[in-house]
């Protein structure tokens, strides 16, 4: 393939073929590619360095239908299969600026609990403006005292008349600085998972405050610590029944992990594409880098892991579309994806050498996004343990 | 008013064109195809006229193989209402296209036809003009602005050295230039809606048009490769090279 490319021509690396894709999937991929190429990629460094991206991007993402993906049609969404989500994640990953996707799509973790368990009034009030890109939605579960240990969270919500009074802290919250609404996991009952509820907090409520956090990666994303100090939230903002929040949170994790896996595999592929193209241009010891066996082996290893991960992702997405909930495999897929991304980011920066160490090139940016994926949405260690338990080991 | 927009399926503008080994044409196997960019502008303009309440229906026509229906679907996803595929595996030349369009127009009776000024594959820039001649309609080519008021149409044309504004009587033919508008993205909800929009199929035989090529391709060759530049040591050397080698002084 590389031999047939002309000088200066870039090689584009597409995912391995997925036999389930329809012309509509491919049309959406074209739209997403153009959207990312014109609306995100040219500004990747600028936004990364600025630590945020313009709020206007939410509206632009709504105009192409990206924000609506997976939400009920009666509230302005488009209910489509998992492959559309995978395509969106993979195309976003081509820009190599993880923070943009993380904040732009934070409603995909914050809003589903509303769509699943909110009252009809709450859905009608919150879902349409979020899908239109007018309101920003976030999810707050992690606390300074613990992350994945959802059953032991400490933020409390005490019923007082027709309100709940919230007290406590949440941290590492994506879109935390700009969110207009946040789905917050709170303790309404006794200790353990049986006392956890979900409630939507309007960030304009007195008693709510937030501070920004600086991070290793995801620079373009606004991440925050949130404080609730006698924050009075209307009781109708409760999602589902009191003390039934844990199940909704767990339900959320499956789709979050599939999204993350698709994004990681996409970023790994972006690393490969960047590396192939760089290695064809860069000359050392009298020949292009790509003609050195040691580099070609790196490219082959990257390809092998990316294709295996993509096949796993396509297979599990297909199972989810057929009504299964393959929790153990989704956990393992997430690890497979984050480790593939880690390997490819390493080999990409290694092949770029000094140029890859310089701030602002795509592989350098992706290298900084490795850890957050291996930690967020369920750390690799938690994923292994959960998978092993689910498999009865 | 009904607007008719012809769209052509061409090699995607991002693809680097390769000449076939035997020189009979360019390589099309496994090459990404898309809507001709000038036609996207034409579709966009029609949609804007519909949004303004000037147009009531947008019909998209494509002439080509079965896969050209994908190009029609793209236009439907952008916001056109209905599609017509004139199915043929022949590489139809501009005159053949104009004759086929004339037949479609006779059944559809549009008040306005908006075409791309040219397709990026053969760069002919002929179809719109030929169609206007065959129909005896007014034409406004290379449009950078289109305004409909009642039975007339003001078209601002991009011509050498400036802009020319002309007034046309409807029905008319308009061909689009690059600066007319910036085409929208087909949104995901509209991609799904496009699936259900009607797409009729016909053929040159049914329309009674002979589309056999009138031209014969003798050879297709790559453009000459640009050779590497040289560094000159002095002004004298530069002047000497410009005089004796480049022959421009």
Automatic annotation (TrEMBL), chain A:
BP-aspect Gene Ontology terms:
fatty acid beta-oxidation using acyl-CoA dehydrogenase
- Please give the Gene Ontology molecular function terms for this protein: acyl-CoA dehydrogenase activity; flavin adenine dinucleotide binding
An annotated GO cellular component: cytoplasm
Q: Which domain of life is it from?
A: Bacteria
The protein's required cofactors: FAD
Q: Which residues form the Acyl-CoA oxidase/dehydrogenase middle domain?
A: 138-231
| Keywords in alphabetical order | FAD, Flavoprotein, Oxidoreductase
Enumerate the spans annotated as Acyl-CoA dehydrogenase/oxidase N-terminal domain.
22-134
Could you say which protein family the record assigns here? Belongs to the acyl-CoA dehydrogenase family.
The protein's name in its UniProt record:
Acyl-CoA dehydrogenase
Taxonomic lineage: Bacteria, Pseudomonadati, Pseudomonadota, Alphaproteobacteria, Hyphomicrobiales
TrEMBL record, chain B:
Gene3D superfamilies per the record? HUPs
- Specify the superkingdom: Bacteria
Q: Which Pfam families match?
A: ETF (PF01012)
Keyword field contains Cytoplasm: no
GO biological process annotation, one example: carboxylic acid catabolic process
**Is Transport given among the entry's keywords?**
yes
Q: Which CDD domains match?
A: ETF_beta (cd01714)
Gene Ontology MF terms in the entry: electron transfer activity
Cofactor names: AMP
Keywords, A to Z? Electron transport, Transport
**InterPro entries noted in UniProt:** ET-Flavoprotein_bsu_CS, ETF_a/b_N, ETF_b, ETF_beta_N, Rossmann-like_a/b/a_fold
Q: Where is the Electron transfer flavoprotein alpha/beta-subunit N-terminal domain?
A: 23-211
Q: Which residues form the signal peptide?
A: none
Q: Where does the chain cross the membrane?
A: none
Q: How does this chain assemble?
A: Heterodimer of an alpha and a beta subunit.
**Which family is annotated?**
Belongs to the ETF beta-subunit/FixA family.
Quote the function comment for this protein. The electron transfer flavoprotein serves as a specific electron acceptor for other dehydrogenases. It transfers the electrons to the main respiratory chain via ETF-ubiquinone oxidoreductase (ETF dehydrogenase).
Q: What is this protein called?
A: Electron transfer flavoprotein subunit beta
**UniProt organism field:** Camelimonas lactis
Q: What is the lineage of its organism?
A: Bacteria, Pseudomonadati, Pseudomonadota, Alphaproteobacteria, Hyphomicrobiales
């Amino acid at each position: 393939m590389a031999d047939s490319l002309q000088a200066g021509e870039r090689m584009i690396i597409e995912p391995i073929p997925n036999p389930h894709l329809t012309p509509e999937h491919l049309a959406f991929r074209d739209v997403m590619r153009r959207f990312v190429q014109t609306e995100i990629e040219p500004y990747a460094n600028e936004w990364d360095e600025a630590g945020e991206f313009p709020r206007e991007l939410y509206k632009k993402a709504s105009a192409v239908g990206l924000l609506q993906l997976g939400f009920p049609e009666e509230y302005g969404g488009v209910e489509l299969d998992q492959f559309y989500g995978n395509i969106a994640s993979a195309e976003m990953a081509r820009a190599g600026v993880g923070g943009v996707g993380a904040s732009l799509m934070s409603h995909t973790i914050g809003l589903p609990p509303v769509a699943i368990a909110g009252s009809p009034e709450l859905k009608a009030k919150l879902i349409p403006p979020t899908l239109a890109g007018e309101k920003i939605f976030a999810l707050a579960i992690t606390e300074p005292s613990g992350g994945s240990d959802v059953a032991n969270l400490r933020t409390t919500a005490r019923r007082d008349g027709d309100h709940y009074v919230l007290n406590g802290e949440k941290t590492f919250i994506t879109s935390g600085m700009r969110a207009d609404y946040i789905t917050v996991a709170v303790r309404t009952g006794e200790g353990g998972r049986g006392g956890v509820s979900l409630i939507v907090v309007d960030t304009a409520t007195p008693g709510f405050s937030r501070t920004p956090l600086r991070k290793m990666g995801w620079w373009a994303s606004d991440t925050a610590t949130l404080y609730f100090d006698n924050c009075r939230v209307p009781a109708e903002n409760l999602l589902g029944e009191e003390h039934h929040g844990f199940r909704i949170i767990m339900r959320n994790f499956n789709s979050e992990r599939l999204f993350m896996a698709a994004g990681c595999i996409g970023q790994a592929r972006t690393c490969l594409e960047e590396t192939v193209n760089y290695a064809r241009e860069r000359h050392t010891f009298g020949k292009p880098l790509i003609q050195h066996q040691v580099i070609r082996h790196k490219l082959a290893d990257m390809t092998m892991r990316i294709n295996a991960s993509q096949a796993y992702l396509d297979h599990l997405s297909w199972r989810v579309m057929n009504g299964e909930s393959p929790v153990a495999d989704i956990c393992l897929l997430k690890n497979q994806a984050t480790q593939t991304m880690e390997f490819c980011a390493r080999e990409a920066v290694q092949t770029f050498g000094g140029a890859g160490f310089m701030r602002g090139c795509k592989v350098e940016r992706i290298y900084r996004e490795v850890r957050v994926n291996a930690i967020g949405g369920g750390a690799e260690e938690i994923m292994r343990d959960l998978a092993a338990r689910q498999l009865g080991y | 008013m009904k607007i008719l927009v012809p769209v052509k399926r061409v090699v995607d503008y991002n693809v680097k064109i390769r000449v076939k080994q035997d020189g009979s044409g360019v390589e099309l196997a496994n090459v990404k195809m898309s809507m001709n960019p000038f036609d996207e502008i034409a579709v966009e303009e029609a949609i804007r006229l519909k949004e303004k309440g000037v147009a009531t229906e947008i019909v998209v026509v494509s002439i080509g193989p079965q896969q050209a229906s994908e190009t029609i679907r793209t236009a439907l996803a952008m916001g056109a209402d209905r599609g017509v595929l004139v199915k043929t595996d022949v590489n139809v030349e501009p005159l053949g296209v104009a004759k086929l369009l004339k037949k479609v127009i006779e059944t559809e009776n549009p008040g306005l036809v908006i075409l791309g000024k040219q397709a990026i594959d053969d760069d002919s820039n002929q179809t719109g003009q030929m169609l206007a001649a065959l129909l005896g309609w007014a034409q406004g080519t290379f449009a950078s602005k289109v305004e409909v008021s009642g039975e007339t149409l003001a078209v601002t044309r991009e011509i050498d050295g400036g802009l020319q504004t002309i007034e046309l009587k409807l029905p008319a033919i308009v061909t689009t230039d690059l600066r007319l508008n910036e085409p929208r993205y087909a949104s995901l909800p509209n991609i799904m809606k496009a699936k259900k929009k009607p797409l009729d199929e016909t053929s040159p035989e049914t329309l009674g048009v002979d589309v056999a090529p009138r031209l014969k391709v003798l050879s297709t060759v790559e453009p000459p490769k640009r050779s590497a530049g040289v560094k000159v040591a002095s002004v004298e050397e530069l002047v000497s090279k410009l005089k004796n080698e480049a022959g421009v002084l």
